[in-house]
Write a structure and sequence with these properties.
By secondary structure, the chain is α/β, with parallel strands linked by helices. It is built from 39 helices and 16 strands. A hairpin with a 4-residue loop joins strand 10 and strand 11. Helix 5 runs antiparallel to helix 6, helix 19 runs antiparallel to helix 21 and helix 24 runs antiparallel to helix 25. The chain is globular.
């Protein structure tokens, strides 16, 4: 249709092209203008059938009276409606004729800009994106010159450009730039109407969904509904469209109950609407089917596919795109039912329909091919899997870059197509399987190239995300790509013996971990290097605190009606806060030239740093994958990597943790002891023995970087010897790892080995609260807290705050002044809702998210409270705990707890820790000595790990530079002060006497 001759269309429509003499241009036709104004009003209300005849009458009158400005604008309006009604040939003929008139008669730009804008809309609809962009840019160029800076038509231009990038070119980053420009104009001009607000917010929702920034997408989805509902009579079909996108986002968030609710709302709105939109209805059936199949209800998906086929064949038989979608849905359902042959047939039928239909986009075809590739992987037809994945890549990249399975497009080629990381993943998975089956390194190297390119594209996606929860969800979803790349490197290393592969594995492990937390540390470092005053940073911390709170709230709901309102308010507030944070960051760049957050280097710790390890130290980093566990180890001179196959490893870790947490149970002491010893040794064999075999007996320090659930595992409580058949219950005699090795933990290598920069402050502040209230479990007595404060005060100087003075406000004001912070109070957490993690002060709770609002920048925090190291676990980021919140606030080392540590056992552990620390011992040795000393003094039952193993050191293990109670400088100052006072006492009276005698 787009290729038809323009001249042929002009002749067919009987269009004439008058020549205009600029000197004798007639005046404006008021009747034509009035009709144009009325038609524009109807158009803004989506009343296309009513507006169309009025546009035509305006065109006729304007042409008759020579009012060419009204004529051109009415042509643009009429053409827009024709486009909406899918009468593209008629629309193109009208636009081309109007353009010809304008250009032949040199009409000024202010007359032509609406025409260019509408041509942009047309070219996008007929899949001519290059011409669409050209037309939209022309319209924008004119409008920027002749219209106010916040005019509504500029919003149209930015939306039009963004829609071409978003829906035609799938360039989501460029699309978001344009949609954001439109959104910025909405902020500056509050008079812009709800239709434009709806369009902008809907576009932002769909784009951020494609960028995997689901929280932001959801907020914009709710804003689009809010804009629509501000109409006196909201358009039900458009509301259905908005409910559909919100449901799609909930599918991405894996909250399928929410998704299904919104799909059902969308279908209900479409059914009730007087205007029937069968394409939209079929789309809702399609989306409901997708949600159902992912929700593990393939039978419901089959029903949706059949409903779709019925609607398409009955009402829109010419729409083969929707028919293809229906068979795609059927293929997906059959695959999940294990009906692989029918599933292949359904997918292939989808592909055939898409190939024959020029309306099918490369994205649609690519998605079908990716699903075929995934299916072939499941049925172990790896060559076919690679074939279909390659086709998906070629179709998306275009004919100029078509390649074979033996090569991949360059990163530069795919830079604006980051979504192709999935197709590259499937291609790599197929090649990896082929390599393993044939013992062939060539396809393995090709697979590795796929995974590395996939990771690069994932990084593009990740960097474009704004919301922290979106970043976490994205990394969790595609964590497997890192594992696949690590496995390829491991196999190449084992086959070749080339040690450079070990360095590559280390790099991937580090890049996969704690990215959000590392980004925060780099921000703090940058703030310090640019000497940004704290008065400016306060605003950022307040914003991050509220964002963290809202993101930590669970989406679990009981009443859908109440939850809809609550979720909508929460997401709208999140969006507003995110926009404020972005504005704050932009202002910071302007105020401090040279500071650019996007240019802050966020690299992994250099590999050569391991050469500086102590000779008795061993660094161990884990990657806990879906298929295996990978262990990287390094001493000063030797690096190694291990792969551990443990199908039941996760279950054993959970059983081990549960066994510790329950403590001593009187009626099952013998059974629990034997189970504990068996699991503790088995996990030692899995997790530590491979790493310890190589270095030999000289090792006595372990620096551990866990992964996933390993963050919750006390490695120091594992045992190095196996259990015997008959052994008495005696936890004291077990060969715990801590008896042989000094153990410390960190989120990544940087945290272990980075030098202490020194916050420029010293001293200790300790909070101890023992006088509780029996009415509240979190306000009960803590007699051990009194002992802790007493022990610490006898060991080193500091400020000690106890009992009723242990107020939240006191902590907030005092803690940032000190280098060592000690908290002997209650704590608690909810593993499903990080916003509920807290420390209990005598008056109120301090929640984890509130620490985002405090700048500590200290060397050590001792969290002598329960569950400060537990919370929701993310494979990529670690545990969202109270301890992590202290790290986010700038604390370099943490002593934290993994469970409810006994009040009676905590005090002696803390006492020994401070005694060793005061001797300038490294922190890891101090906590090691505390645990060993406790075990030496314990009996066979109180040596149970529940009493001592829950306390761990995280972060930099180096010793602290402590300020002694009375240093030489202190003594000197006291002597000088005494001399001054002594002299003043005797000298001043003498002077007074002298004054009197003169």
């Amino acid at each position: 249709m787009a290729s038809h001759s323009t001249i042929f269309l002009f002749l067919a429509l009987g269009t004439t092209f008058p020549t205009i003499n600029a000197e004798v241009l007639p005046g404006p036709d008021r009747e034509a203008q009035a009709l144009l104004k009325r038609a524009d009003e109807l158009l803004s209300q989506w009343k296309y059938p009513e507006a169309l005849p009025i546009y035509r009458k305006s065109i006729s009158l304007a042409e008759k009276n020579g009012d060419w400005k009204t004529f051109i604008n009415a042509i643009a309006g009429k053409s827009y409606i024709l486009i909406r009604l899918r009468k593209y040939e008629h629309a193109q003929a009208s636009l081309d004729s109007a353009l010809f008139i304008g250009e032949e008669n040199n009409l000024p730009p202010e007359v032509m800009h609406n025409l260019y804008y509408t041509r942009g809309i047309l070219f996008q609809r007929i899949q001519e994106p290059a011409q669409a962009i050209e037309a939209h840019k022309k319209a924008l160029e004119i409008r920027l010159k002749i219209l106010p800076a916040d005019h509504v038509k500029l919003v149209d231009c930015y939306n039009g450009l963004g829609e071409v990038y978003r829906y035609s070119l799938r360039d989501y980053l460029e699309a978001e730039k344009n949609f954001q420009a439109a959104a910025d104009l909405l902020k500056t001009n509050a008079k812009i109407g709800p239709k434009h607000r709806y369009r902008t917010f809907y576009n932002m929702a769909t784009t951020n969904r494609s960028l995997n920034d689901f929280e932001k997408a959801l907020a914009y989805g709710f804003k689009s509904i809010e804009a629509l509902e501000s109409f006196p009579a909201p358009d039900t079909l458009t509301l259905a469209k908005c409910y559909g996108i919100i449901a799609n986002i909930y599918v991405n968030k894996k909250q399928f109950d929410h998704a299904i609710d919104y799909y059902e709302k969308a279908i209900a709105y479409r059914t009730l609407s007087r205007r029937k939109d069968y394409r939209g209805l079929s789309l809702d059936y399609y989306n409901l089917g997708v949600a159902s199949v992912v929700f593990d209800d393939p039978y419901q998906t089959m029903a949706c596919a059949d409903s779709m086929i019925s609607v398409v064949t009955r009402y829109i038989p010419y729409d083969s795109v929707k028919l293809a979608d229906a068979y795609f849905l059927k293929g997906w359902a059959l695959r999940n039912l294990g009906e692989y042959r029918p599933s292949v047939n359904a997918y292939k039928r989808t592909y055939q329909i898409q190939q024959l239909n020029d309306k099918s986009t490369f994205f649609d075809i690519s998605t079908t091919l990716k699903h075929l590739s995934k299916l072939m992987l499941e049925i172990k037809q790896y060559d076919s899997a690679v074939h279909y994945a390659q086709k998906a890549i070629d179709i998306a990249t275009g004919p100029d870059y078509a390649s074979s399975y033996r090569s991949n497009p360059s990163y530069a080629t795919l830079e604006n197509k980051p979504y192709l990381f999935k197709a590259l993943k499937y291609k790599g998975m197929g090649l990896r399987k082929i390599a393993i089956e044939n013992n062939d390194l060539a396809p393995l190297k090709l697979a590795l190239d796929c995974f590395l390119l996939s990771e690069s594209l994932m990084n593009l996606q990740w960097q474009s995300l704004d919301m922290e929860t979106s970043k976490l969800q994205f990394l969790e979803l595609y964590h497997h790509v890192y594992e696949l790349a690590i496995d390829c490197y491991y196999r190449l290393y084992k086959a070749s013996g080339e040690t450079n592969y070990i360095e590559k594995i280390y790099g991937l492990m580090e890049r996969s971990k704690s990215r959000v937390l590392k980004e925060r540390f780099e921000d703090i470092k940058a703030y310090n290097s640019f000497n940004i005053p704290d008065s400016i940073l306060v605003e950022e911390r307040k914003l991050r605190s509220e964002i963290a709170y809202l993101q930590g709230k669970s989406d679990v709901r009981s009443s859908p009606a109440v939850a809809d309102s609550t979720l909508q308010k929460r997401n709208l507030r999140l969006l507003a806060l995110d926009e404020q944070l972005s504005k704050w960051q932009e202002d910071l760049v302007l105020r401090f030239p040279g500071y650019d957050r996007d240019r802050i280097e966020r690299s992994v710790m250099p590999y050569k740093t391991f050469q500086n390890l102590k000779k008795e130290a061993l660094f161990i980093e884990y990657f806990f994958g879906e298929e295996a566990l990978y262990i990287f180890t390094s001493t000063r001179h030797k690096k190694e990597v291990f792969k551990v196959q443990g199908d039941s490893l996760l279950n054993q870790i959970n059983e081990f943790l549960g066994l510790i947490a329950q403590g001593l149970v009187p009626h099952q002491l013998e059974n629990d002891f034997k189970t504990y010893h068996t699991l503790a040794y088995r996990l030692y064999r899995y997790l530590l023995e491979p790493a310890l075999k190589g270095p030999g007996e000289d090792i006595n320090e372990l620096y551990i970087v866990p992964d996933g659930i390993l963050h919750l595992l006390p490695f120091h409580a594992l045992t190095v010897t196996a259990s015997s058949q008959k052994e008495p219950v005696d936890y004291k005699r077990l060969d715990y790892v801590t008896k042989k090795y000094i153990v410390s933990y960190a989120h990544d290598a940087h945290a272990h080995f980075s030098t202490r920069s020194g916050p420029g402050k010293s001293g200790l502040v300790a909070f101890g609260w023992s006088k509780g209230k029996k009415s509240n479990a979190y306000l009960s007595d803590l007699p051990g807290a009194t002992r802790e404060i007493k022990y610490i005060s006898s060991i080193m100087p500091g400020k000690f705050i106890e009992d009723d003075k242990v107020l939240k406000s006191t902590f907030v004001s005092e803690a940032p002044k000190y280098n060592i912070i000690h908290l002997a109070i209650h704590g608690g957490t909810d593993p499903n809702e990080s916003s509920s993690t807290f420390l209990q002060f005598s008056d109120e709770r301090l929640f984890a998210h509130e620490l985002y609002n405090i700048h500590l920048d200290n060397d050590l925090t001792v969290l002598s409270a329960c569950e400060t190291g537990t919370g929701k676990v993310f494979n990529s980021e670690g545990v969202y705990s109270m301890a992590r919140a202290f790290s986010f606030a700038g604390c370099r080392s943490l002593l934290m707890t993994l469970w409810n540590v006994g009040d009676g056992s905590m005090a002696p552990l803390i006492r020994t820790f401070y005694e060793e620390m005061n001797k300038q011992e490294p922190l890891n040795k101090a906590i090691h000595r505390a645990q060993v000393t406790y075990l030496e003094r314990a009996d066979p039952y109180s040596a149970h790990p529940v009493y001592w193993a829950g306390i761990e050191l995280w972060g930099n293990p180096n010793s602290l530079k402590l300020q002694p109670a009375f240093s030489f400088h202190h003594v000197l100052l006291i002597i000088l002060a005494f001399l001054v006072l002594f002299g003043a006492y005797y000298y001043l009276p003498y002077k007074r006497r002298g004054w009197v005698t003169h």
